[in-house]
């Protein structure tokens, strides 16, 4: 009786390895940006639980201070990306920014992050 071998061939294994490698490389490029965003969210949540954010400049300073502990790069979020919006009687601290992550040659990922949290006391601007 003849036995028939089954399984993956070397060429099939190399192709599968190339596909897995491509997605692993993509993840290595994108995951740090999402981890940084989680640090921004954590800093924003800390800002929402404490009061004393009377004006936009003070809120920006406090947020930058809190983000420095979360390993958020200073060049990621510009002062213009942090705003305070007033909706009725509620003031919201909003951070919206874009991040460009170079990938391969002239291909890059454009990531848009946006988060808004209510503040205890603030003046909308």
UniProtKB/TrEMBL annotation:
Domain of life (superkingdom): Bacteria
UniProt name for this protein: DUF4845 domain-containing protein
Organism of derivation: Luteibacter rhizovicinus DSM 16549
